[in-house]
Structures are given as C-alpha cells and as structure tokens.
C-alpha cells in the first residue's frame, strides 16, 4: 500500500493506494499551513481507512516545482515516515502528478504552476492510451508567451494547475481549442500522485531517502537577493 503526500501548493492532499484501488483520499484547500495540517490529515485518514502503519509499503511525495515551503514540509514528512517505517520513497514531479488527473485524455494537458511575477512553470503532456508522454518538459516562462506558443500548435489543450487558475479568463477567451480543467482535476491530488508513483514502485524504481531533494527548477527569491547583496551563493 502506498501513502501519497501532496503539498506543492495551497492544496493539502493525502491518499492511500492499494493494488490499484484508491482506499482513501483527503484533499483540502483551507489556506492553513501544511505544518498545521499534514500530520493530522495523515493520522485521520489512516484511522478512518482502518489502515495501520505496518500496512504501508511505500511513501510517494510530490517534489515540485511549486511552493518552496510546502515542498520542504511535504518532503521532510515523507522522508521521516519512510525512514521511521523502513519503507521506500518515490518522488514524483508535480506536473507529472497533475497530468495523471487526465488518464486517457485526447487533449494535450498543459500544466501551469505559478512561478510568481507573471511567470509559470509550464509543461505539456499527452496520453497514448495508458502511457503518459512528455510533449514539452518543464520550463519557466511568461504565461502570455506560452499561451501564444500553444495557439500556434492548433491542438486541443486542457489546462490545470494554480498558474492556470490565475490565467483562467485569458485561457477561456482564446477559443474552442483551449479549456480549463474542472475543479476536481485542476488541482494536484494525492490520488493521482499515488497512481504515478505506483508505476515506478511496481517496477522497483524507488529513490534514495537520504538524497531525494525538491525539483525547484529555479532558485528562490532569497537566494537571488543574497547573491545580489553579497556577491556569493547562499549555502542551503
């Protein structure tokens, strides 16, 4: 059984996946910090699903990009549980997890994750039957520029992620080829994260608990400001 932890955005989501069955999922957008919510959510879900910790075979965790603080909390929690329970850990990049909300979709799936200052972490995927394929890998780019780029492709696109929600009006006004994902699919969910991780878990492809790190894709604002002020990199 996989325990999945998703904390890359304002959404707090945890799930249990067992032999292809989603045993439980708790997904909340309450604007509370993950440090307040995450462990109580895990404990509550395990209790309600009547699952003891010794039944957990692995931990799946979203590694970003996304909220720097949220990713650190989620990964630290996942590592602590994996180490304490002596089970494998599988890190899944957040855009991949979001794309798993749309298994078998005919549209391209565009993931926009807010990168601040009008930019997004943008990536593009398509499903070939049950196989997820990357059309364009994650890049940091201006939202408007990427929308123009996609318009030129002439392919139906479904948008998801918190960056897409910020651009909802522009996306919906482009034309019939662009559409927003429904509320149940536009946000990252631990159930989809668990399905993505299970493919790797079944193949024995797991990560090293000691060396797994967040996929930030860019430096934090604190690092940039430190380097500007002191002329050297900040050690984190």
In short:
The chain has 236 residues and is α/β, with parallel strands linked by helices. 37% of the residues lie in helices and 28% in strands. The strands form 2 sheets. It has a 5-stranded mixed β-sheet, sandwiched between helices. It has a 5-stranded mixed β-sheet with strand order 8-7-6-9-10.
3D structure, described in words:
The chain has 236 residues and is an alpha/beta fold. It folds into two domains: 2-94 and 188-221, ATPase, nucleotide binding domain (Nucleotidyltransferase, domain 5); 95-186, Nucleotidyltransferase, domain 5 (2-Layer Sandwich). It has helices spanning 34-48, 68-85, 94-99, 143-151, 162-166, 168-174, 183-186, 190-202, 221-230, and strands at 2-6, 12-18, 21-28, 58-62, 89-92, 108-114, 119-128, 131-142, 157-160, 178-180. Strands 3-2-1-4-5 form a five-stranded mixed beta sheet, with helices on both faces. The longest helix is centred in the N-terminal third of the chain and has 18 residues, at 68-85. The model has no long low-confidence stretch (mean pLDDT 93).
């Amino acid at each position: 059984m996989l325990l999945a932890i998703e904390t890359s955005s304002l959404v707090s989501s945890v799930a249990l996946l067992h032999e292809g069955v989603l045993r439980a999922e708790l997904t909340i957008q309450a604007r509370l910090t993950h440090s307040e919510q995450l462990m109580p959510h895990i404990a509550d879900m395990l209790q309600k699903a009547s699952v003891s910790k010794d039944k957990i075979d692995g931990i799946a965790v979203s590694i970003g990009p996304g909220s720097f603080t949220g990713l650190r909390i989620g990964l630290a929690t996942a590592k602590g549980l994996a180490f304490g329970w002596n089970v494998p850990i599988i890190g899944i990049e957040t855009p991949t997890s979001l794309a798993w909300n749309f298994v078998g979709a005919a549209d391209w799936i565009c993931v926009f994750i807010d990168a601040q200052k009008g930019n997004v972490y943008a990536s593009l995927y398509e499903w070939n039957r049950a196989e997820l394929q990357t059309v364009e890998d994650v890049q940091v780019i201006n939202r408007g520029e990427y929308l123009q780029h996609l318009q030129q492709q002439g392919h139906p696109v479904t948008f998801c992620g918190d960056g897409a929600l910020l651009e909802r009006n522009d996306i919906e006004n482009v034309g019939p080829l662009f559409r927003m994902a429904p509320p149940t699919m536009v946000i990252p969910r631990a159930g989809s994260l668990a399905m993505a991780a299970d493919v790797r878990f079944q193949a024995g492809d797991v990560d090293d608990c000691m060396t797994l790190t967040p996929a930030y894709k860019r430096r934090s604002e604190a690092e940039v400001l430190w380097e500007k002020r002191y002329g050297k990199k900040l050690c984190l």
